[in-house]
Amino acid sequence: MSDGFKKPVSDRMLKILACPICKTSVEIWPLGKDGSGLKCSECKRIYPIRDGIPVMLESEVISGKNKTDK
């Protein structure tokens, strides 16, 4: 991600984070004006990042298996 995009989560943190549901790695996913999220590479759930803190709770999923895809 370039074009002046500021990563909301450090590379170091991104390496240790995993989807709490399927335990697969996550990647930074842009959410337009809403900011950024972390998208699971396996189940495709997207977790929000609020104030620089990933909110990786199943009840907070923005999109994916337990929510209607946007």
Largest sheet: 4 strands, antiparallel
CATH architecture: Single Sheet
Shape: globular
Number of strands: 4
Helix count, per DSSP?
A: 1
In percent, how much strand structure appears in the residues? 15-25%
- Walk across the major sheet and give the strand order: 1-2-3-4
Give the mean pLDDT.
85
Report the span from N to C terminus. Answer: 21 Å
CATH topology: N-terminal domain of TfIIb
Give the topology string: H per helix, E per strand.
HEEEE
Number of domains: 1
| Unreliable residue stretches | none
Can you identify the CATH class? Mainly Beta
What can you see in these coordinates?
With 70 residues, this protein is mainly β. It has a single domain (11-60), classed as N-terminal domain of TfIIb. The protein is 9% helix and 24% strand. It has 1 helix and 4 strands. The longest helix has 6 residues, at 11-16. The two termini are 21 Å apart.
Quick rundown:
With 70 residues, this protein is mainly β. It contains one helix and four strands.
What are its keywords?
single chain, 70 residues, mainly beta, N-terminal domain of TfIIb, four-stranded antiparallel β-sheet, 4 strands, 9% helix, 24% strand
Topology:
Blueprint: H1 11-16, E1 26-30, E2 36-40, E3 46-50, E4 53-54
Antiparallel strand pairs: 1-2, 2-3, 3-4
